Amino acid sequence: MNEVIEENERLRRERDLLRRRLAEVEENFVRTVSDSQQEILARNEALAVANSQLQELDRMKDAFLSMVTHELRTPLTVISGIAEMLETGIYGSLTPSQEDNIRQITAQAARLRQLVNDLLDLSKMEAGMMKLRLEFHDPRALIDTVIGQLITFAAQAGVILVSTVPEGLPEVSCDGQRIDQVFVNLVTNAVKFTPNGGQVTFSAESAGDFVVFCVTDTGKGIPEDALPRIFDKFYQVQSSTESGARGTGLGLAIVRHIVELHGGQVSVESLVGKGSRFCFTLPTRDHFRHLH
Ligand SMILES: Nc1ncnc2c1ncn2[C@@H]1O[C@H](COP(=O)(O)OP(=O)(O)OP(=O)(O)O)[C@@H](O)[C@H]1O
Ligand SMILES: [Mg+2]
């Protein structure tokens, strides 16, 4: 009988000991969890502060860029205006070397103005401030307008512009001026990177509720590893800059922003030595009917 009582007593002590240990483990566990929670909270707070500082810096950078580009516009307009007047000879005739210098001033001022306008457009789009004037346009008419604008520029580079756009495609919803800007950027690139004797072809076809527009050249092409970054701002393929082609790397970033603002998508295919094809889509009336 005593043995049973003793055994009982021993088991009770063991149980108490185990309970105490369990309580200790629990307490430790709770403390560790709460310590880590506090650490996570503290780190989260630090992250939030860093994040808001970064956002503020980013906003300041954008505001600064937009302010500087605005401020550059006025003096540029004045410089171009005066240079153009001098060029006409209304202030007296010019020697050949003066004429040459003035021509350079107007050309460089025009480049600078283009750059300033590109930077302003990009900062407006990145801030979500660009408004579109949407209307329905005939795809063929859009392309004919661009060809009219750029045929001489292309011919000077020995490149012909060809349209294979059929009649009767559905009208697309777009801001005509902005889509013109998209085409001008694509065609300027196509001509810039296509050697004398090449061709740039415009095509368009219906695809579901969209029309797909493509600009295809027979130029130098783009290496495969560069394709994923080609629409990033300031990105240029190194061989293009080495070969002396001018530019800033803003054109395709603007193209992508404008197309996406319209609800379309951009894409590119290219083979080095064969040529490149840039395509983008724009919604037709059916697209909006199916939305409702
Ligand atoms: N049709 C093309 N053929 C070959 N390379 C191209 C073509 N279009 C674009 N690229 C490559 O993509 C780069 C980026 O083009 P993007 O139009 O953005 O800039 P850019 O023409 O260099 O400068 P910007 O358009 O600002 O004057 C070009 O520098 C060039 O390396
Ligand atoms: Mg360009």
Could you name the key traits of this structure?
elongated; binds adenosine-5'-triphosphate; 14% strand; 5-stranded mixed β-sheet; binds magnesium ion; two-stranded antiparallel ribbon; alpha+beta
Any overview of this molecule?
The chain is α+β, with helices and mostly antiparallel strands. 60% of the residues lie in helices and 14% in strands. The chain has seven helices and seven strands, in the order ααβαββαββααββα. It has helices at 2-88, 96-126, 139-156, 176-192, 238-242, 251-261, 285-291; strands spanning 135-137, 160-163, 172-174, 199-207, 210-217, 266-271, 275-283. The strands form two sheets. The protein has a five-stranded mixed β-sheet. The longest helix is centred in the first third of the chain and has 87 residues, at 2-88. The N and C termini lie far apart (88 Å). The model has no long low-confidence stretch (mean pLDDT 93). Adenosine-5'-triphosphate is lined by residues 118, 185, 189-190, 193, 217, 219-220, 222, 230, 235-237, 240, 247-253, 276.
Tell me the strand order in the biggest sheet.
2-4-5-7-6
Bound ligands: adenosine-5'-triphosphate, magnesium ion
The percentage helix is 55-70%
Count of strand segments: 7
The gross shape turns out to be elongated
Succession of helices and strands:
HHEHEEHEEHHEEH
Give the percentage of residues in beta strands.
5-15%
* Oligomeric form: single chain
Question: SSE layout and pairings?
Answer:
Elements: H1 2-88, H2 96-126, E1 135-137, H3 139-156, E2 160-163, E3 172-174, H4 176-192, E4 199-207, E5 210-217, H5 238-242, H6 251-261, E6 266-271, E7 275-283, H7 285-291
Parallel strand pairs: 2-4
Antiparallel strand pairs: 1-3, 4-5, 5-7, 6-7
Helix pairs in contact: 1-2, 2-6, 3-4, 4-6
This protein binds adenosine-5'-triphosphate (ATP) and magnesium ion (MG).
Magnesium ion binds next to helix 4.
